[in-house]
Write a structure and sequence with these properties.
This protein is of the alpha/beta class and 273 residues long. It has a single domain (3-230), classed as Alpha-Beta Barrel (TIM Barrel), CATH 3.20.20.60. Helix content is 47%, strand content 11%. The chain contains eleven helices and eight strands. It has helices at 3-15, 28-36, 46-52, 64-76, 94-106, 128-142, 163-176, 189-198, 216-222, 232-251, 263-270; strands at residues 20-22, 42-43, 82-85, 111-115, 148-152, 180-182, 203-206, 226-228. An eight-stranded parallel sheet has the order 1-8-7-6-5-4-3-2, sandwiched between helices. The protein is globular, with a radius of gyration of 19 Å.
Length: 273
């Protein structure tokens, strides 16, 4: 499928009735496995990728080049549309965000997100005016590309549980031209519903983080269009890995093998078409 057709398919998912799930592989192998299950689109995870190469989820230690190389690997492993976690755009300046969008499109992505987190613990969120300028620049870069731009407001992930400011940012992102808006870490279903009612663009919500867990049906009823899982699938895999390794180290037994995926099944997912 061509990049333009993937883009059209991705746009259509956001336009049709109901919510859809966009899971987050962290490499080509997990992209192949998720594709086999019948998902309709995939999204990268900076956290899952970071863990896989021995890094924390931080723009300070994972470079734009690494993120885009990982995204290319995932794009090449699936026929599905792929959107990317592009963190804060890899620079403070609006033009850097715009450049990141163009580079993302060049590796075959048909979507990506830019967030308002700075990566600086002393000042974790960009001030409002600069935040909007950055999203405007990203939207302008995406305007003539086959690219769905998601704008993220990160208050609730950085100790700033200010729903009014979060909504103000999301509304400004809509006005700037963002295709999708996203406020990870909202505390409850009522807050999610309030956000969905306050904006005129599709809303992404992430599940699998700490805190309350809602079903697809509950989120759809609240007005959510797109549901991602962030790095939680990667952490689930790491949990199984550590349980197996701990069993061997502490008990000297190997019962974990009963729950392991058979080699033939794993090989089948990885087989080239």
């Amino acid at each position: 499928m061509s990049q333009l057709k993937k883009y059209d398919a991705f746009k259509a998912l956001h336009a049709r009735p109901g919510a859809f799930v966009i899971p987050n592989p962290w490499n080509g192998g997990t992209a192949r496995m998720l594709t086999s299950l019948g998902y309709e689109a995939l999204a990268t995870t900076s956290a899952g990728f970071g863990f896989s190469i021995g890094h924390q989820d931080s723009a300070g230690v994972i470079t734009r080049e690494q993120i885009l190389a990982n995204a290319r690997e995932i794009v090449e492993a699936t026929h599905l549309p792929v959107s990317a976690d592009l963190e804060g755009g890899f620079g403070d300046a609006p033009e850097t965000c715009a450049q990141t969008i163009r580079m993302a499109c060049d590796v075959g992505l048909v979507g990506g997100s830019i967030e308002d987190a700075t990566g600086n613990s002393e000042n974790p969120i960009y001030e409002f005016e600069l935040t909007v300028e950055r999203i405007i620049a990203a939207c302008e870069a995406a305007r003539d590309l086959p690219f769905v731009l998601t704008a993220r407001a990160e208050n609730f992930l950085h100790g700033r549980p200010d729903l009014d400011d979060t909504i103000a940012r999301l509304q400004a992102f809509c006005d700037a031209g963002a295709d999708v808006v996203y406020a990870p870490g909202l505390p409850d279903l009522e807050a999610i519903r309030t956000v969905c009612q306050a904006v005129d663009k599709p809303v992404n919500v992430v599940m699998g983080l700490s805190g309350p867990v809602f079903s697809v049906d509950q989120l759809q009823e609240a007005g959510v269009k797109r549901i991602s899982v962030g790095g939680s699938f990667a952490r689930a895999a790491l949990g199984a890995f550590m349980r197996a390794a701990t069993e061997v180290k502490e008990k000297g037994t190997f019962s974990y093998g009963a729950d392991a995926m058979p080699d033939k099944e794993a090989s089948r997912y990885m087989a080239k078409e």
